[in-house]
Write a structure and sequence with these properties.
The chain is of the alpha+beta class. The protein contains ten helices and 22 strands. Strand 16 and strand 17 form a beta hairpin. It is globular and about 80 Å long.
Length: about 375
């Protein structure tokens, strides 16, 4: 099906959506048995940051102290598109089940009818394409959202002419959002479910036994540097990988920081794969397995212990630290080197092995890279990496 973007029209959010405010709720400690998703201002996992029981949600108050509010105020109905308005602003996630959320999230419901997973995913995707408007500390609070517009396909006749609603309910021009088209388009996408042959149990661990390391001491020979930068607007780019093209890495949050693809023969300063890249002004962190070149403000990190498994393990931990570098604080090279990570350590007879050279830590602890690799390999779908 052809999206025919040229025929899409703008609609005011407030005329299409019933915009709800999230609940400013202090997150309780989870018991681990909860089934209700907590949606927060995150850029992954469909917005889910935790799961709670109804009792845990009911007993958690706004500040952690009384007075509390009713459960009906905290739990939202299913079939909503949740949009983050703070932090990772402009991310949108369709929720097929009831949920609770923070005040950094605005649940959207259709004013007429109800989202299903197809229309919900379609709208969420459109909203995400506009999230660039809300970068650099701009919040998308409800007072701004009610003034926002969204561009959607419209109902047309067989000749491609817009069908006009005389009541002008949804737009001053009388256009009608074509929910049937959106649903049909999503249903016709050719997507095969991701499969895995990895049936082994996930390795268990206790982080209480992990030790603190300064990240800079883990990088042998101080192998961290500012990459040569290329301007994307001056390059011939493609949105899909083709023979002879390599990755162009930028500060984007998406697609493992791979912004587009560029012709390999156009470059002399090409980075080898097996590296961690960090966008210093955005704290965007990714592992690069293949040849790549970079946009501006990209730091490259290399180490002998690095492979795609240990790389993903360390990238996950570094991303947990990125909140320290938001709101205008750049993740500069010195900050990266000084970042503290807790890692599993090598042991013998249940006790940490001490390295007299103190190469990786002042206490002489040795990171257990083999265990980290084994852990990542034990995860579901790790055979797809």
């Amino acid at each position: 099906m052809n999206l025919k973007l040229s025929s899409w029209q703008y609609f005011d959010y407030i005329r299409i959506f019933d915009i709800k405010k999230g609940f400013y709720n202090k997150k309780p400690d989870p018991s681990g048995s909860g089934k209700i998703n907590f949606i927060g201002a995150t850029d992954h996992n469909n917005g889910v940051t935790e799961r709670y029981t109804l009792d845990e949600i009911e007993n958690a108050s706004r500040t952690g102290d009384l007075p509390n509010e009713s459960l009906s105020r905290k739990v939202f109905p299913a079939h909503a598109v949740c949009v983050t308005n703070n932090g990772s602003v402009g991310y949108a996630y369709y929720q097929e089940e009831s949920f609770t959320c923070s005040h950094d999230v605005n649940p959207l419901y259709l004013k007429d009818g109800e989202f299903n997973k197809y229309t919900g995913l379609f709208v969420a995707t459109v909203i995400m394409h506009d999230k660039y408007r809300w970068g650099y500390g701009r919040k998308w609070r409800p007072e701004r959202m009610v003034k926002s517009k969204i561009k959607l396909p419209i109902v047309q006749d067989e000749d491609g002419n817009p069908l006009i609603d005389g009541s002008k309910k949804y737009s001053d021009d009388g256009y009608l959002p074509d929910w049937a088209f959106m649903e049909k388009y999503m249903m016709n996408l050719s997507v095969n479910p991701v499969s895995t042959n990895n049936k082994s149990p996930v390795c268990s661990f206790n982080t209480k036994d992990w030790k603190e390391f300064q990240f800079g001491k883990l990088i042998e020979n101080n192998n961290i540097y500012k990459a040569k930068a290329y301007s994307k607007i001056e390059l011939e780019t493609k949105n899909i990988a083709e023979k002879g093209y390599i990755h162009f890495v930028s500060r984007t949050e998406e697609n493992n920081s791979i912004d587009c693809y560029v012709m390999k023969s156009d470059f002399s300063d090409i980075e080898e794969g097996n590296a961690i890249t960090i966008g210093d002004t955005t704290s965007t962190i990714a592992y690069q397995s293949e040849l790549f070149v970079n946009g501006d403000h990209i730091i490259v990190i290399r180490a002998d212990w690095l492979n795609k498994y240990t790389g993903m393990f360390i990238v996950s931990l570094l991303r947990k630290e990125r909140y320290r570098y938001s709101y205008g604080r750049a993740f500069l090279m010195d900050s990266i080197k000084n970042t503290k990570l807790h890692l599993p350590v090598k042991k013998q007879d249940g006790k940490p092995i001490i390295d007299d050279s103190h190469t990786f830590s002042d206490e002489g602890y040795l990171p257990d890279w083999e265990w980290m690799e084994t852990y990542i390999k034990s995860l579901p779908y790790s055979d797809r990496i």
